[in-house]
Amino acid sequence: DSGVTQTPKHLITATGQRVTLRCSPRSGDLSVYWYQQSLDQGLQFLIQYYNGEERAKGNILERFSAQQFPDLHSELNLSSLELGDSALYFCASSVSGTSYEQYFGPGTRLTVT
Amino acid sequence: AQTVTQSQPEMSVQEAETVTLSCTYDTSENNYYLFWYKQPPSRQMILVIRQEAYKQQNATENRFSVNFQKAAKSFSLKISDSQLGDTAMYFCAFMKLDGTYKYIFGTGTRLKVLA
């Protein structure tokens, strides 16, 4: 158990809908990272937050957005969902921007039908 | 931009044997970190081993060791005495020390350990 929690575990929704994925980092970790893993692919970096502020952006679609709240949990919002958005979404956390090890949550599997 | 290449989509090894997974990367940076992560069927990402680029000594963790060749930009993972529980996807990851510390992952190698 990495100490990072993600909810829900599974999500099935229809095209055009909007969903919110939630991540709670390890106690004391200030940085949260979101990654997307499509079927049998590597993980693609989406976005990073550090202590409530956006720190870095990857190839995140405009339909996707995220935020980190004062209690440090983070939410990834996916809207106008398309079939191609079906994937495993991972959240990872690290102690600070200078910590080199990220701890991954169990992921949320999103299926868009 | 940095890229990470894992040229072996699938590999298999007999139980108790040794296997080496390849990873190459492209960067103009001098300081960075490299990681190997394991993803078993449960899909959990588990850190196997990490290597700091400024360290010449290869990292080892029990049955896992790396061969880090900085000039060649190569970072291979050796698994000794393979066990059935080593069956998983293995991802190589690169991290630049640019203040964001985000990972860039390779596409993975699916390893199957045969009884």
Molecular structure report:
The complex is a heterodimer of chains A (113) and B (115). In chain A, strands 2, 4, 5, 6, 9, 10 and 11 form a seven-stranded mixed β-sheet that branches. In chain A, strand 9 and strand 10 (103-104) form a beta hairpin. With 113 residues, chain A is mainly β. Chain A is 0% helix and 51% strand. With 115 residues, chain B is an all-beta fold. Chain B is globular. In chain B, strands 2, 5, 6, 10, 11 and 12 form a six-stranded mixed β-sheet that branches. Chain B has a four-stranded antiparallel β-sheet with strand order 3-9-8-7, with no helix packed on it. Chain B has no helices and twelve strands. Classes of the chains: A mainly beta (113), B mainly beta (115).
List keywords for this structure.
heterodimer; A: 113 residues; mainly beta; seven-stranded mixed sheet; four-stranded antiparallel sheet; globular; B: 115 residues; six-stranded mixed sheet; 53% strand
In short:
The complex is a heterodimer of chains A (113) and B (115). Chain A is mainly beta.
Radius of gyration of chain B (CA) equals 14 Å
Helix/strand class of chain B? mainly beta
| Class from helix and strand fractions of chain A | mainly beta
* Most extensive protein-chain contact, per-chain counts: A-B, 28 and 23 residues
Binned, the helix content of chain A reads under 10%
Oligomer: heterodimer
Topology, number of strands of chain A: 11
Average pLDDT over all residues of chain A = 93
Helix content of chain B: under 10%
Radius of gyration of chain A: 13 Å
Along the chain, the helix and strand elements of chain B come as: EEEEEEEEEEEE
Low-confidence stretches of chain B: none
- Percentage of β-strand residues of chain B: over 45%
Low-confidence stretches of chain A: none
Strand content of chain A: over 45%
What is the approximate shape of chain A?
A: globular
